[in-house]
Amino acid sequence: MRSVVVIPARMASSRFPGKPLCDLAGKPMIQWVYEAAIKSQVSDEVVIATPDQEILDAAKAFGAPAIRTSIQHPSGTDRIAEVAQSIKAEYYVNVQGDEPLILPENIAACAAPLGESDEILMGSLYTECADDEIENPAVVKVVVAQNGNALYFSRCPIPYPRNPRLGAVNKHVGLYAYRRDVLERYATWRQTPLESTESLEQLRFLENGVPIRMSKGKPSLLAVDTPEQAEEVRRIILSGGYA
Q1: What is the pTM assigned to this prediction?
Q2: 140: pLDDT strictly greater than 70
């Protein structure tokens, strides 16, 4: 069963322009992500997808294959759907380019359900949400059904504790695996009401009836949205907190 890991990345960012090439302990951020994807052993093929020549040049410099994609894509999933037109596989794994501390075992856990069953159309990952993250709208939460599928994603604390919670609040980790036909269908769908309201692209799949199988992963380290977070990642790497 052929799979491909795709790392979507772009230079444009409202809070941190050029962040994929931000230097982190001697390597650009995108290289840390690429090396983690290789270590996951999910696929022999790991590709960077970008509209920017600077990222294409950087990928070539550290030996990573890269594909130029349209600058018009509103999301990483749209970018991967374009890649799927030229690289044929049974499923694709989306590893976001701003996760330099992503754990290889989390990438593998996200992809595993699709490798084990043809009936699984899409996969993603969750961990337990820390108490100080529950009210933070930048941290996406997910409610998971007893069969392992996602019921809903939100920036709000869910489930709402009208009564005492009987379990942990789940934090969504932004890793995805998709069957080829799901990606092809996604590219034809318009943005959906819940997706627009929450600004969460994974809701477009749920609103169009695609179940998302959630796997439990290990707590993830810091993603990078700001220069301050990049500096914290540098500190973690240089202190030996990430191998």
Answers
A1: 0.92
A2: yes
